[in-house]
Design goal:
- By secondary structure, this protein is mostly helical.
- It has a domain of about 200 residues.
- It is about 50% helix and about 5% strand.
- The protein is built from 28 helices and 9 strands.
- Strand 6 and strand 7 form a beta hairpin.
Length: about 525
């Protein structure tokens, strides 16, 4: 286990109480009073004191709960101990079979909006959808039993990052989250890659909708083609050239969408091929609808990464490109490295990366198969406690650990913004970094959040602290439940003597590592 530096301990440990006078006071949001939110009781029932971890180190059960979820809730350790880690992994890899009633009730008020066709989203105010998307994402991470699914949704959202602040992305990103990320998070990478390539939000964000040849001397827009290879598949050192970028951009010409502005101007499009909207041969007026205009496509021969693509394929050029980059060995290696960073260590071993890359290639990008390979590597088993939680993971795990009720509204989001990781707020296509070095400057705000959470100073979020202590069976059980292991003698001593033991526990290095 990696040792905690003195600087980290000082900032996140007992000395941090000195900062309590400057605690961040969140703005008023939709209040949660007595564990109620919109008439729902969101405090998870604890029918009897669950057995907490009994080991002073992170055992395999605790390790699986730390890595495969956004943090365990009371009773998770006992449940997974009884069913076994292997069965828990398979349960999480089959989320559709899990009852997720509490999460469904929490997010029910947003269901109608999320199920609407993309065109209906354009009826919303300019800035109304991104905050709802951030809020629903946070509520799902906190309340869902399908934890590995939510973890993978976060992973792929970063991998295919889209900033909703650009153009029509503010209306189209929710459907991208539904139809690209959540639909394919535990499915097949090739399917997700193609869905992303023709996502209205991605077409807007990386200028795919502007990649059109209208005159013989027009040059294609290379923005998406470059990010497709650099960020989504092969990686920055993946062996492609500038010529490959240009050839991929040529393959992707002609794909566009019907923007909100065009709809307001009364524009009508009659494309030859479309993905949504009007019936074939009818005028196309569906806002956000994606279509292919063969008249503005470069239909000549191309050569991508050593593969010849013959002339005359039209819209099928995109599938040739997707197959070439999705099944390239460097894509397998690039994605294996990122996944190992998420689930094993910031600097995973070459052996683990190669094993996972082989699994990716052999399974043709089956994400469940790849995850099983990761969780079976010796390095994963030996990596307990070496990773530092990113801010979103930290905040969600803290709320889950103390069985808090929350509406995940503005006060919670303001803390995440101060820590630098509010969902869907990263401005560039590479997404939030995985490595711990990027998050060291967030430690002070982590402590402020821990202190505010422990003392019910976050509007809309509440802990029934005395009840929780009674239900778990006392201080020792509370510490073991929060840390997912028995506390050390120093941790117990600090908890009992600090005057605010729960806040100190949540801000401690032991809790911030997973």
């Amino acid at each position: 286990m990696k040792k905690t530096s003195r600087r980290e301990f000082i900032i996140t440990g007992a000395a941090a109480i000195a900062f309590s006078a400057t605690i961040f006071r969140a703005a008023q949001g939709l209040l949660t009073q007595g564990g109620q939110y919109l008439g729902l009781n969101l405090t998870r029932p604890i029918e009897r004191a669950p057995l907490p971890p009994a080991s002073t180190s992170i055992d395999p059960v605790a390790h699986a709960l730390n890595r495969l979820t956004f943090g365990p809730v009371a009773g998770d350790y006992e449940r997974v101990s009884k069913m076994g880690v292997a069965a828990f992994i398979e349960e999480q890899l089959d989320p559709g079979k899990m009852d997720d009633g509490l999460c469904d009730r929490v997010t029910a008020r947003f269901c109608d909006l999320w199920g609407e066709p993309l065109g209906e989203h354009y009826e919303e105010d300019d800035d109304s959808l991104p905050p709802i998307l951030r809020r629903v994402t946070t509520l799902r991470a906190i309340y869902s039993r399908r934890q590995l699914f939510e973890v993978m949704c976060e992973f792929w959202s970063d991998h295919f990052n889209i900033d909703p602040g650009k153009g029509d992305c503010r209306w189209s990103k929710p459907s991208d989250d539904r139809d690209v990320i959540r639909k394919n998070a535990l499915g097949n990478f090739r399917d997700m890659l193609r869905a992303s390539a023709l996502s209205p939000a991605m077409l807007w964000y990386l200028d795919g909708q502007a990649n059109s040849l209208r005159k013989t001397d027009d040059k294609p827009n290379e923005n998406y083609a470059r990010e497709l290879m650099e960020l989504h598949t092969l990686g920055v050192h993946g062996g492609y050239t500038q010529q490959d970028v240009m050839e991929v951009a040529r393959c992707l010409t002609g794909w566009s969408l019907f923007s909100k502005r065009e709809a307001k101007l009364g524009k009508v499009i009659k494309p030859r091929v479309f993905l949504s909207g009007a019936a074939k041969g009818m005028p196309f007026t569906d806002r956000g609808g994606v279509f292919f205009d063969g008249e503005h496509h470069d239909n000549g021969p191309k050569r991508v990464l050593g593969h010849d693509i013959p002339a005359g394929l039209g819209k099928d050029d995109i599938d040739r490109v997707i197959d070439i980059v999705a099944f390239h060995p460097n894509t397998a290696r690039f994605l294996a490295t990122k996944l190992c960073k998420r689930f094993i260590a910031d600097e995973p071993s070459a052996a683990s990366v190669e094993a996972v890359a082989k699994s990716f290639s052999d399974s043709k990008g089956d994400i469940k198969t790849v995850l099983r390979t990761i969780f079976s590597t010796p390095e994963y088993a030996a990596s307990a406690g070496v990773k530092i939680k990113r801010p979103f993971h930290f905040v969600v795990s803290a709320i889950r650990a103390v069985n808090a009720s929350t509406d995940a509204d503005k006060p919670v989001m303001q803390f995440l913004e101060k820590m630098g990781q509010a969902p869907f707020r990263y401005p560039t296509p590479d997404g939030y970094p995985l490595e711990a070095e990027h998050w060291h400057t967030t430690l002070l705000w982590r402590w402020k959040f821990a202190l505010a959470l422990a003392n019910n100073r976050i509007a809309g979020t509440r802990i029934e602290r005395a009840k929780l202590l009674r239900q778990l069976g006392g201080d020792s059980a509370l510490m073991a439940t929060v840390l997912n292991r028995k506390p050390t003698a120093d941790e117990s001593d600090a908890f009992l003597k600090s005057g605010d033991g729960l806040a100190l526990l949540l801000a401690s290095p032991g809790f911030q590592r997973c």
